[in-house]
Design goal:
The complex is a heterodimer of chains A (297) and B (770). Chain A folds into 3 domains: 15-60, 2-Layer Sandwich (Uridine Diphospho-n-acetylenolpyruvylglucosamine Reductase, domain 2), CATH 3.30.43; 65-184, Uridine Diphospho-n-acetylenolpyruvylglucosamine Reductase, domain 3 (2-Layer Sandwich), CATH 3.30.465; 190-296, CO dehydrogenase flavoprotein, C-terminal domain (Enolase-like, domain 1, 2-Layer Sandwich), CATH 3.30.390. In chain A, 43% of the residues are buried. Chain A has 297 residues and is an alpha+beta fold. In chain A, α10 (239-245) packs antiparallel against α11 and α11 (252-265) crosses α12 (276-296). Chain A is 33% helix and 27% strand. Chain B is an alpha+beta fold and 770 residues long. Chain B is globular and about 95 Å long. The chains are: A alpha+beta (297), B alpha+beta (770). The A-B interface holds A 1-9, 11-12, 45, 48-49, 110, 197-203, 205, 207, 272-275, 277-278, 281-282, 285, 289 and B 46-48, 51, 54, 102, 111, 114-115, 117-118, 120-126, 270, 272, 633-634, 636-638, 673-674, 678, 685-686, 688-691, 693, 696-699, 753-754, 757-758, 761.
Chain lengths: 297, 770
C-alpha cells in the first residue's frame, strides 16, 4: 500500500492589522479572510504545531477598548470579549453576582495564561474542555456577535447553547467578531458551582468539567441548570438530568437516579487524557459532589 | 601583625556561581548564540513507524528562495553509528520508527526551513509494525533490522549461587511482574546544536552534550572525520538529566548541513519535536521473584527483564547493567539470578536518564520488599533492618560497601516520619467511611556514589593556575549541566588555597582547553572532579607554602593559607599576603608560576564479563518515607510529605544537596503519579506539556531532608555522589503509601487518577459480588 507524507498548513501571514476601533476591526474581517488574535494562548500553540493555519490576514483585536469591561445594565451582565480570565477572577461585580465565574477562573490554566487569555477567546476556541463554557451554559448566556453588513455594523445574539457546532467549530461566520457575552443577573437565591478534574491545581486540561446552578427552597431544587465539559463533542447542557432534578428533594436516591439520567445524555470518548469509563465515572462523582455542595449553600 | 582564624567553607550554603546570570536572563544558551553567516537547519521526520521509503522528492524544496541545502540519505555513504552500530543520520530505504530522519534542510531562517520541509514529498510502502517486545520475539514477527534475527538487541545475565536450593530454604516466595513506563526528561532547553567548519575542514560543534570527550569519538565516525578534528564547545544547558549522554542523529545531520553549505548551521528542536525525538527513560517488563525465611532473611532474587529497545540502540537497553546491581545489592541478597533481553520494536528509543535503570529496578524491588514484609507479618522497617548491609560487606557483584550507613538512614527516616505508628494507624483506618484515605510508605535504595567504571577510565583531569593577583582558574574536564560542580569546585579550591570563592573561575566548556573527563553521569562529578580539583589544589598549595617557607624562614608545615594570606598555622598570625608572594615567586630571578595539573582515577574496578567487580569507588543509600492522601472517588493521589534520609558522605554545599534532592523528588513524583509518554502503535500521543504532565509547583509536597554523613574515605573531603538517589527511591515509597491507604498494589506506574479510581472500583465490584 503506497502512502505519502506531506504537510500543508499555512503558518505565515501576508498581512497584519491591529485596529483600535470595533468598526475598523469589522472592516478588516469583512471578506472573511482573517484570523483573529486576542490573548493568543490557544492560537499561538495551534499555529506553531501546525494544527491550525493562518488565513491571509492576522487581525489583532487587543487595542479595541469597546471589547473590554464587565458591566451591568437592564438586569443583564455583559462581559467584553477582551476581558481576561484574571479580570474575571478579581472583578467585584463577578464576585458579588456570579461567583461561579470567579471560581472557574481560579481553576483556569496558570497565572501567566490567565493574564492574557480572554473570555472571548476561550469561547471562540470552542474546545469541549474550555473551562469558561460550562458556567456560561448554566447562566443561559448569549454570545454577542457583530459584523459589517452593507457597510454598517450589524449585531446578533446567539444563545451559548446554540453557539457550538463541534470541537473547535461555532456558528460564528468568518466575517463576524464575538464582542462579548451577556446573561441575566441570576435571581435571588441562585447558587452555582463549578468543578473540573485533575490533580494539578494549575495547567490542567480537564477530563471532565461540570457546572450546576439552581435555587434550593425547602430542600427542593428549582430552576436547575446543569452543564458538562469534555464528555461530548461540545460542552453541553444536561437537559434531562436538569428536568429530573427540578422540583425534587435532594436525597441519595434522587441523586443516584440523576446520575443515571446524566450518563444517558453524555457521549464521552477515549482520548489521551481519559477513557470513556473514567469520564463516566467522574460524571457520577462530580454530580454527587456538586449537588451536595449546592444543598449546603 | 594580625591574626586570621581557621575557617571552613565545607558544609556551607552557597548559591551556584552561575545562578545570578540565569536569574536575570543573561546566560547565553545555544539558542542565544548566532555566528556570522549562520544558517538554520530542520529535519523532516517520518510520520509512520515502519515503512519502505519508495521515493523522496526534494526538488520543490531546493528551489525555494533562502534554501541552501536539502539533504537525504542518498547524498552520503551509509555510516552506522550508536551503541549497536544500528543507527544512521539520514535514513535510506526504510523507516523503523517515527523518530526517523528522512531529509534535512538548511536555510536562512527557521520559517524558510519549515516551508521547505512542507514541499518535500515522501512515498512509502507501509510495513506491518511490531511494538510489543514480547510479540517482537515471536518467530513470525516483522524484523526491525534485517540483520538482527529475533529482533534481539542486547542481553545481560548474572548468576550468583544456586536458586533451586535457595528456593528450598525459603518460607515465602514473592512472584510479580512489574511494567514500568516511558517518561522523558523534559529539559527546559530543547535539543540544539551549532556546527561550524573552519577552512581546514576542522569542526567546531556547540553542543549540549554531557560527555564532551567520548562525544567526539562517537560523533566523528558518523561523519567520516577524525575525532581529533572535532572541537566541542559546551555553552550552558537548560537541563540534561542523562539525555545528552549520547550522539543522536540530529547532531551529525547538522554537521552534514554545515559541510554541504560551508556555513555555520544551527538546528534546534521545537517542543513537539523534543517530545517525539529526544530519548526516553527505558521502559521494562520486570518479572521479579524474591524468597525469604520466616524470620525475614532474604534468600534469593530471580529476575527476568524484557526491554522495549525501540528501533535503534542508545543507552536505554544497557540499563540492565545497573538494574542487576540493584537486584543483587539492595539489601543483603545471597543468591541472585538475573536475565534481561532488549528487543527491537518500531517504537522510539530510550537513552540514559537520571538513575539509569535503578529507577525501574528499585520501583520493583522496593515494592516487593513491602509486599514480602506484609506477607511475613513484619513491618517493612524491621524487614529492611534485618537485611540491611553493614560496612565491610561485599555484594554478589563485588560492590564493597565501605562507610555504609544504611541502618542509620532507615532509623532516621522512620523515626522522623513516625513511620511505624502512622502505618499502623492508617491501615486501621482504611475501612472507615470517608473519601480521603491517608497512607505512608517506605522505600530503600542503593546507588553508586563514587563514579562507575564502565569505560576504560573513569577519571577526570584538572589544570589549576594562580595569577599575580591570587585569582585562581581551574580548568576541569567536568561539564556543568546544572548539577552544581561549579560551586563544589570553588569550595574545594577555597578550602585548600585560602582564597575567596569569588576569586575562582571555572573553565570547563571547551574540549580544546580542558583535559579529559568521562562525562556527567553516575552521580560521579563531585566525587571524581572534586577529587581531581582538590589534588591539583594541594599541589599548588605545597608549591606556595614551599616558597613562603623559604622566604619567611618558617617550616612549611607551620604555615597555612587563609583569606588570601600565608599565616602561621598555630596562631593564625599573618606572614605575607598571598598575591604579594605569588608576584615575588613570578618575578624573581629564578621565576616560578603556580600551575598544577592532576588526573584522578578513582580506585574502582571494571566489571568482569561475568559482571563482577567493585565498579564504583563508593556506594550510598537513601531511604524515603512518603505520606499520601488518596481521593477514593476520583483516584487522585496527593503526596503530602516526604521524609528523606540519604547518605551524602559529607556535605560540601548544603544548598546544592538540597536542590538536588528536592529536584530529584519532584522528578520522581512525576514518574510515580503523572508523567507518561503515551506511545501507541509507535506513535507518541501526547507530545506537549499540555498532555504530558510534569509536577508543577503547587503539587510539590513538604520535604524533610536528613543528610547522613558517612565520611567516605575515598571521596573529596569525605563527600559522596548524591544526585540520582532521590529520583530512584521516591516512586516506590509513594506506591507503598498508596497501598497503606487503600490496600491496593500498583505494579505498573504511573498511578494516575484514572488507574487508581479504576482499581478501587474493580475491587469494590468484586467485594460486592462476593
Amino acid at each position: 500500500m503506497m502512502a505519502s507524507q506531506s504537510k500543508a498548513t499555512k503558518n505565515a501571514i501576508d498581512d497584519y492589522l491591529a485596529p483600535a476601533t470595533l468598526s475598523d476591526a469589522l472592516g478588516a474581517l469583512e471578506d472573511g479572510e482573517a484570523t483573529i488574535l486576542a490573548g493568543g494562548t490557544d492560537l499561538m500553540v495551534q499555529t506553531q504545531s501546525g494544527r491550525v493555519g493562518y488565513k491571509q490576514r492576522l487581525v489583532n483585536i487587543r487595542r479595541i477598548d469597546e471589547l473590554r469591561g464587565i458591566s451591568e445594565h437592564g438586569g443583564r451582565i455583559c462581559i467584553g470579549a477582551l476581558v481576561t480570565i484574571t479580570e474575571l477572577l478579581n472583578n467585584t461585580l463577578v464576585a458579588e453576582k456570579v461567583p461561579v465565574l470567579a471560581a472557574m477562573a481560579d481553576k483556569f490554566a496558570s497565572n501567566q495564561i490567565r493574564n492574557v487569555a480572554t473570555v472571548g477567546g476561550n469561547i471562540c476556541n470552542a474546545s469541549p474542555a474550555g473551562d469558561s463554557i460550562p458556567p456560561f451554559l448554566v447562566l443561559d448566556a448569549d454570545v454577542e456577535l457583530a459584523c459589517l453588513r452593507d457597510g454598517k455594523a450589524a449585531t446578533r445574539s446567539v444563545p451559548i447553547t446554540e453557539f457550538f457546532t463541534g470541537p473547535g467549530r461555532t456558528v460564528r461566520a468568518s466575517n463576524e467578531l464575538v464582542t462579548g457575552i451577556s446573561f441575566a443577573v441570576p435571581q435571588a437565591g441562585f447558587i452555582a458551582r463549578f468543578i473540573k478534574s485533575g490533580p494539578r491545581p494549575a495547567l490542567e486540561i480537564s477530563a471532565v468539567s461540570m457546572a450546576l446552578g439552581g435555587v434550593v427552597e425547602n430542600d427542593v431544587f428549582r430552576s436547575v441548570s446543569l452543564s458538562f465539559g469534555s464528555v461530548a463533542p461540545t460542552a453541553m447542557r444536561a437537559r434531562k438530568a436538569e428536568t429530573f432534578l427540578t422540583g425534587k428533594k435532594l436525597d441519595d436516591e434522587t441523586i443516584r437516579a440523576a446520575v443515571e439520567t446524566a450518563l444517558e445524555e453524555v457521549s464521552p470518548i477515549d482520548d489521551v487524557r481519559a477513557s470513556i469509563w473514567y469520564r463516566r465515572h467522574l460524571v457520577g462523582v462530580y454530580l454527587r459532589r456538586l449537588v451536595a455542595d449546592v444543598v449546603q449553600g | 601583625m594580625t591574626s586570621i582564624a581557621k575557617k571552613s567553607v565545607i558544609g556551607g550554603r552557597f548559591p551556584k556561581p552561575d545562578s545570578p546570570d540565569k536569574a536575570v536572563g543573561r546566560t547565553r544558551f545555544i539558542n542565544d548564540l548566532e555566528l556570522p553567516r549562520m544558517l538554520y537547519g530542520k529535519i523532516l521526520h517520518t510520520d509512520r513507524p515502519h515503512a519502505l521509503i519508495k521515493s523522496v522528492n526534494t526538488e520543490r524544496a531546493k528551489t525555494l528562495a533562502g534554501v541552501h541545502a536539502v539533504l537525504t540519505g542518498d547524498d552520503f555513504p551509509e555510516v552506522k553509528f550508536g551503541i549497536n552500530r544500528d543507527n544512521t543520520p539520514l535514513k535510506k530505504g526504510k523507516v523503523r520508527c517515527i523518530r526517523d530522519e528522512i531529509a534535512a534542510v538548511a536555510a536562512e531562517t527557521e520559517e524558510i526551513c519549515n516551508a521547505a520541509l512542507d514541499l518535500i514529498t515522501v512515498e512509502y510502502e507501509d510495513l506491518p509494525g511490531v511494538f510489543d517486545p514480547i510479540e517482537a520475539m515471536l518467530a513470525d514477527a516483522p524484523l526491525v533490522h534485517e540483520d538482527r534475527p529475533g529482533n534481539l538487541s542486547l542481553a545481560y545475565k548474572f548468576d550468583h549461587g544456586d536458586i533451586a536450593s535457595a528456593e528450598r530454604q525459603s518460607d515465602v516466595i514473592m512472584d510479580h511482574v512489574f511494567n514500568v513506563h516511558y517518561v522523558t526528561h523534559c529539559c527546559m532547553g530543547t535539543s540544539s546544536v551549532i556546527a561550524d567548519f573552519d577552512t581546514d575542514g576542522k569542526l567546531t560543534i556547540y553542543t549540549q552534550t554531557q560527555y564532551p570527550y567520548n562525544y567526539k569519538m562517537d560523533l566523528a565516525p558518523a561523519l567520516g572525520i577524525h575525532p581529533g578534528d572535532v572541537r566541542v564547545i559546551q555553552p550552558p544547558v537548560g537541563g540534561a538529566f542523562g539525555s545528552k549522554l549520547d550522539v543522536y542523529p540530529f547532531e551529525p545531520i547538522c554537521v552534514l548541513l554545515a559541510k554541504a553549505t560551508r556555513r555555520p548551521v544551527k538546528l534546534t528542536f521545537s517542543r513537539e519535536e523534543e517530545f517525539i525525538n529526544a530519548p526516553t527513560r527505558q521502559p521494562a517488563r520486570i518479572h521479579l521473584r524474591m524468597g525469604a525465611k520466616a524470620d525475614g532473611t532474604i534468600t534469593f532474587r530471580d529476575v527476568d527483564c524484557i526491554l522495549n529497545n525501540g528501533a535503534y540502540t542508545s543507552w536505554g537497553p544497557t540499563t540492565p547493567y545497573v538494574m542487576m546491581r540493584t537486584f543483587s545489592s539492595l539489601y543483603r541478597v545471597p543468591v541472585v539470578r538475573f536475565r534481561s533481553q532488549a528487543v527491537y520494536t518500531n517504537n522510539p528509543y530510550a537513552g540514559s536518564f537520571r538513575g539509569y535503570g535503578n529507577v525501574q529496578a528499585t520501583y520493583a524491588a522496593a515494592i516487593q520488599a513491602d509486599m514480602m514484609a506484609e506477607a511475613l507479618g513484619m513491618n517493612v522497617l524491621d524487614f529492611s533492618l534485618k537485611n540491611a548491609q553493614k560496612s565491610g560487606e561485599v555484594s554478589p557483584q563485588g560492590s564493597r560497601l565501605e562507610d555504609c550507613v544504611f541502618t542509620e538512614c532507615l532509623a532516621i527516616a522512620a523515626e522522623k516520619s513516625d513511620f511505624v505508628a502512622k502505618q499502623n494507624r492508617y491501615q486501621a483506618e482504611r475501612n472507615r467511611p470517608g473519601r480521603i484515605k491517608r497512607g505512608i510508605g517506605l522505600a530503600s535504595s542503593i546507588h553508586n556514589a563514587g563514579g562507575a567504571k564502565i569505560h576504560k577510565s573513569d577519571g577526570c583531569g584538572s589544570i589549576l593556575k594562580l595569577d599575580d593577583y591570587a585569582r585562581a582558574t581551574l580548568i576541569t574536564g567536568a561539564s556543568e549541566i546544572g548539577q552544581g560542580i561549579d560551586a563544589v569546585i570553588c569550595q574545594v579550591l577555597s578550602e585548600e588555597l585560602g582564597i575567596p570563592m569569588s576569586d575562582i573561575t571555572i573553565v570547563n566548556n571547551d574540549s580544546a582547553i580542558a583535559p579529559w573527563d568521562v562525562g556527567v553521569h553516575a552521580s560521579r562529578t563531585t566525587f571524581i572532579a572534586g577529587n581531581s580539583a582538590r589534588r591539583a589544589a594541594i599541589k599548588a598549595r605545597e608549591q606556595i607554602l614551599r616558597a613562603a617557607s623559604k622566604q619567611a624562614n618558617v617550616p612549611q608545615e607551620a604555615l597555612d593559607l587563609r583569606e588570601g594570606w600565608v599565616v602561621q598555622d598555630d596562631n593564625g598570625e599573618t606572614v605575607i599576603k598571598l598575591d604579594k608572594l605569588l608576584r615575588q615567586m613570578h618575578f624573581k630571578e629564578d621565576p616560578e608560576l603556580v600551575m598544577t595539573t592532576d588526573y584522578y582515577e578513582p580506585p574502582s574496578e571494571p566489571e568482569t564479563e561475568n559482571h563482577v567487580g567493585d565498579m564504583s569507588a563508593a556506594y550510598s543509600h537513601a531511604v524515603h518515607v512518603a505520606e499520601v492522601e488518596v481521593d477514593t472517588e476520583t483516584g487522585e493521589v496527593k503526596v503530602v510529605k516526604v521524609t528523606s534520609a540519604q547518605d551524602v558522605g559529607r556535605i560540601i554545599n548544603e544548598m546544592g544537596i538540597e536542590a538536588q534532592i528536592e529536584g530529584g523528588i519532584a522528578m520522581g513524583i512525576g514518574y510515580a503519579l503523572s508523567e507518561n509518554l503515551q506511545i501507541v502503535d509507535g506513535l507518541v500521543r501526547n507530545p506537549s506539556f499540555r498532555d504530558y504532565k510534569v509536577m508543577t509547583a503547587p503539587e510539590v509536597p513538604e520535604m524533610e531532608l536528613h543528610f547522613v554523613e558517612s565520611h567516605s574515605k575515598t571521596g573529596p573531603l569525605g563527600a559522596k555522589g548524591i544526585a540520582e538517589l532521590p529520583t530512584i527511591v521516591i516512586a516506590p515509597a509513594i506506591a507503598n503509601a498508596v497501598h497503606n491507604a487503600i490496600g491496593i498494589r500498583f505494579l505498573d506506574p504511573p498511578l494516575t487518577p484514572e488507574k487508581v479510581a479504576r482499581a478501587i472500583w474493580e475491587r469494590d465490584i468484586s467485594v460486592a459480588a462476593e
